[in-house]
Design a protein that fits this description.
This protein is an alpha+beta fold. Helix content is 55%, strand content 17%. The radius of gyration is 49 Å and the shape is elongated.
């Protein structure tokens, strides 16, 4: 008995009691609802402004179905595709992975370029110079002096990167000719061989700019390797999801086609019932509408297949002209995927070991350590130990234009010049001819030794280096906070992924039960219709529910597979789970 019946009985009892006591009173009137008040402006929803009467008499009389085909796809050209094949094609052809691969190559060249600084370097010059200048000396009677020189110099520089040491060897050669009468030798040969060693004592000994660039280039190369692996993980995860979406779309297309078949069978069945007098002729209209709805669903399912397939092709095709674009992709991978048996703690442990984001953060911290080491070294005083040695050689011939200015005022000029010539010959024997230059060098005839320190100190302190050091230390703190944020975000992803798998399992169970039960309900409702205990609308409702249940069951399974792929991605195990090695 409903609540309304109880209320009526209660009111009747109250009336009887009041009548017995002579105090019967009519029940209190039920307040009426607030009367509707018209809009004072006279505007009602059905009279909304801005809605012109456009195409009011339009009806479509075209009952033909559009051509059922896939745009740009040859239905006869089918290609069976496993998930492993799709992943392999994506790794070979995916543009994002190719970009990451190029980035890795660029980082490798940057490292080679940085190391080039410490390669031995050969420098030098070879030139001939001839100059004529006015005579400005009282010792020469020439109006001008012409001098020609041929220079050939070479030097080689080597480094000891570990200590910042610089070693240099130089050899200098010069052949000099002149018409200056006070020059003793013409031609004159000058050569020297020297060595220089420079060793930083404070700044530059442990770290300098070239070593900083090299160390950063090394870390960047490691980071690009990790970024390449990250791109590979993202690509593989995307292919997995696209593969299962295409699997579901094709299954849904088949379900909708089966729905059209069932709806047409139901329509024929209804027509027989009309002929037998068990149904009214108007009941056929509902079945015809059901057929039209399912036919429309087939077109929508075909469009979903086209979208899902194009998404997968975009991930695995090498270019827009590849043959795969005209092929029909048929996923043949078994939809039953093994569920990962992992606890939350195990999943988090794997994620903290394998997630590329944490490795990238680690590489950035390594770069920051290099920066701190460099800027700390830059705050030290720049004092270098310098040592050098050189050996020179001289040779040549007597200047034919030589004329001693001291013999001009001599009382016996001829005797003076003869004595002068004798002295020149003795000088030439001492100096040696052109062939004495090299022996002079290696006999250490004219050596030069140098040892000392050189320094470059800012008077007010190197504030720029200290500021850069402070910046690097703050950046280290920022990277540590960033790492904590990444770890927390990874924890959220892992937790959600595990929970999503459990939810997907429950969804699959529900979808399986729903499909089985709706099948029974549909068959039962058909039997009731045949016996006159139901109507066509309930049958069509059960038929619609059965079609949706069939589609939802595989949707739930593919969603579970996608949830498994997402958990593998969250743990950083996408590549190992699919037997992929990123190289």
């Amino acid at each position: 008995m409903g609540s309304r019946s109880y209320i009526i009985i209660l009111l009747a009892c109250l009336l009887l009691v009041n009548a017995a006591h002579g105090q019967a009173e009519p029940p209190a009137p039920i307040p009426s609802p607030t009367p509707f008040v018209a809009d004072p402006k006279g505007i009602f929803p059905e009279n909304a402004p801005g809605a012109p009467n456009v195409a009011a008499d339009y009806v479509s009389l075209d009952r033909s179905l559009p051509y059922l085909e896939r745009v740009g796809v040859d239905a006869a050209d089918q290609r069976a595709l496993t998930l492993a094949e799709a992943i392999e094609m994506a790794l070979d052809n995916n543009r994002d992975i190719e970009v990451a691969r190029k980035g890795r190559s660029i980082a490798g060249f940057e490292l080679k370029a940085a190391r080039w600084f410490y390669e031995p370097r050969l420098t030098g010059q070879a030139l001939y110079e001839r100059s004529t200048v006015p005579n400005l000396s009282i010792f020469s009677t020439n109006e001008t002096t012409t001098q020609g020189s041929f220079v050939g110099n070479a030097g080689i520089t080597g480094y000891i990167p570990r200590f910042g040491s610089v070693i240099r060897a130089d050899i200098n050669n010069q052949r000099l000719t002149t018409n200056n009468p006070i020059a003793i030798l013409s031609p004159q040969y000058n050569s020297s061989l020297g060595f220089t060693f420079t060793q930083p004592l404070f700044r530059g000994r442990g770290m300098d700019q070239p070593r900083r660039i090299i160390e950063i280039a090394k870390r960047n190369l490691e980071i690009t390797d990790t970024q390449f692996r990250q791109r590979s993980i993202d690509a593989v995860a995307a292919v997995e999801k696209a593969y299962w979406d295409l699997t579901y779309s094709l299954r849904n297309l088949q379900v909708q086609r089966d729905g059209v078949r069932d709806a047409k069978q139901q329509l024929e069945h209804n027509r027989r019932l009309v002929e037998e007098g068990q149904l009214a002729p108007i009941d056929i209209v509902a079945a015809e509408t059901q057929v039209a709805n399912y036919e429309q669903a087939v077109y929508e399912a075909l469009n979903a297949v086209n979208i899902a397939e194009n998404l997968l092709k975009n991930l695995i095709a090498p270019d827009r002209d590849a043959e795969i674009w005209s092929e029909v992709l048929i996923p043949i991978e078994a939809v039953e995927r093994p569920l990962p048996d992992v606890t939350l703690s195990e999943a988090m442990e794997n994620a903290l070991k394998l997630r590329p984001e944490l490795e990238i953060n680690k590489g950035q911290k390594a770069i920051n350590e290099v920066e701190q080491k460099f800027y700390k070294d830059q705050t030290r005083p720049q004092i270098d130990f310098v040592a050098g040695y050189s050996s020179a050689g001289v040779g040549g011939g007597i200047n034919p234009n030589f004329s001693s200015p001291f013999c001009a005022n001599s009382p016996e000029p001829a005797k003076c010049e003869a004595a002068q010539q004798a002295q020149l010959q003795n000088f030439l024997q001492t100096i040696g001819g052109p062939g004495s230059v090299v022996p002079d060098i290696f006999s250490n005839k004219y050596p030069t030794y140098r040892i000392g320190v050189q320094f470059n100190l800012p008077l007010l302190g190197d504030k720029a280096s200290r500021a850069n050091l402070g910046k690097a230390r703050v950046d280290a703190e920022r990277l540590e906070v960033q790492r904590e944020a990444i770890e927390q975000a990874i924890q959220v992803e892992v937790r959600n992924a595990i929970q999503n798998i459990r939810t997907a399992e429950a969804r699959l169970r529900t979808a399986s039960i729903a499909r089985e039960n709706t099948q029974r309900q549909y068959e039962s409702e058909q039997r009731k219709l045949d016996s006159g205990q139901s109507d066509i609308y309930r049958v069509l409702e059960r038929q619609t529910a059965l079609t949706a249940a069939r589609s939802n069951e595989l949707r739930a399974r593919t969603e579970l597979n996608k949830a498994i792929a997402e958990l593998n991605r969250a743990m950083g195990r996408t590549l190992t789970a699919n037997n992929v090695e990123a190289r």
